[in-house]
Amino acid sequence: MFEAKKRLGRDKVSNLINWGHWFAFYNGLLAILIGSKYILALGLPESIAGWGYLTLYTVGQFCFLSFIVYLVCLFPTTLLLPYSRILRGFAAIVATIGLTTLLYDTKIFEVYGIHLSPFAVDLAWTDLNALFHGYSYFITPIIILVIELTLANYLWKRINKIQKRNNGPKVLAVLGTCFIGSHLIHIWADAANVIDITRFDEAYPLSYPATAKSFMERHGIERRQSSLSKVGSETTLEYPQVAMQCTAETKPNVLFISVTSLRKDMLNKETMPFLSQYAQNNLDFTHHFSGGNGYNSSMFSMLYSLQTSYMDSDLFAFKTPVLTQEFKHQGYKLGLFNSENFNRDVEPLAIFNDFDKHLVKPHHNNAIADASIIESFKAWKTKQHQPWFALVNLNATETYDTPVGYLGIKTVKTPADYKPAQRVLFNQYRQSASYVDKQLKNLIDNISQDTIVVVTGANGAVFDLKNDYKDSLSPQNVEVPLVIHWPGKGKQVINYRTTHYNIAPTLLKRVLGCSNPDTDYSSGHNLLEPNPNDWVYVGDQRVFAIYQQNEITVIDRHGKYRIYDINFENRLHKKLSAPELIQVMREGRRLYNN
Question: Going by fewer Cβ within 10 Å, which terminus of the chain is more open, N or C?
């Protein structure tokens, strides 16, 4: 009698375990239906390989997640409370919570491009009603619970019939093949840089596809550019979104001078008297921001006129900026003048491909190299018989260089909070800026008055030796001078905020006569019109800042954020402002083909 009861108990637990496996399987299928919204947000694959991988990845990932929930929540409950009614009700509640969370995560991902996290909750909380349309986030869990209770009861009544069919091992084999196969394909795609596969890496929650990166880096193997990666990137990112329509009535020459690491506060008569006077006689943009906090990100924001969050796209390994494309298309001769040192590690790879490169030999003193760069430009200019667009990079301020024996300017009192090493750097930097000012005079004095001249800093400079994200995104490192000589515009002081993103749309519209809306190819707008946004985006792929009217929000790639006052001195203990961040994130995805 005791043995019979014991056997019946074992059979009952066995039935409950089998029921739990099938309940988890069918919930995995429900999760796949809900998870299809992730794919709609990212865009469908463009290749057979992409479709094959996505199918295996989707089935394997969601069924795996469903089984993990069963293993953690339901299996222990089955052993502790082997009562079918209790277990069915508990399982339905757990599944409802899981699917509802997944459904809300798809909505967060669709709007913000991130998965649920404390950061996402902070971000979405103030926008909750708009996200879920009134009471839908209350009604939806009730509907899911009804479905789960129905499914739980249906499977329990038919569990004996299901077991007799013995389909469990076959289903397990298929799911295991999908899960393992998707990871093996991803290892290959990561090694071959197949963007049509790897672009789904962050599509699903709690997904960590296997990669080949660490193995390849250890053995010095470079990833090759796959033909599929080009197809994927071209169809994923549309730049420009619509073909450009440009007709230039006149074709003035354009000289674009970018000074690496030039701070805004150097534009004064004591440090840079020539540029200071030049600003007073032309268009002086007194509140101008770089789009990045380093050379590559800053140049990307100037020439591509896009948020630097786009820099990761493989499209820009072979797609040049719309700005230079159109100058070239209109018959301009394009010349780039720089030192070889500053063009060896340029990213993205295609950024300067439209230019004829005139790179001087590197010198241990960038001040000497700058003088050679200017002479190279002057020699090139005399040989031009067609309209030209020249980009001249000066770099002495990057390394605080001046020529040996240079008679510079008087030292000044440094800010009170500077440490001894910072004081030395500050005054040496001023000497370098003074030298650059003399080079600018030498350069601009040899340019005709009907030439458009743009002078700006690629990025700013900080003198704190810690070199952390707080310094790299401080106003000293992202606010730079912008002075434009535009024939016929006269002199004007522009006090509203402008950014590097605004330079390309201004040149395209005012010089080349492009009629496209700025949004077709740019994150910016016309420099000569106030910024329609009350925020400015600055940063790189690792960390970025949102400059608002009265505060600065710094956010890293993990979603951690800090908010500072407008002087970047005091941290403000307050919640993230969702509307501005929503606009930033939408702009960072706007050109992707969804």
Answer: N
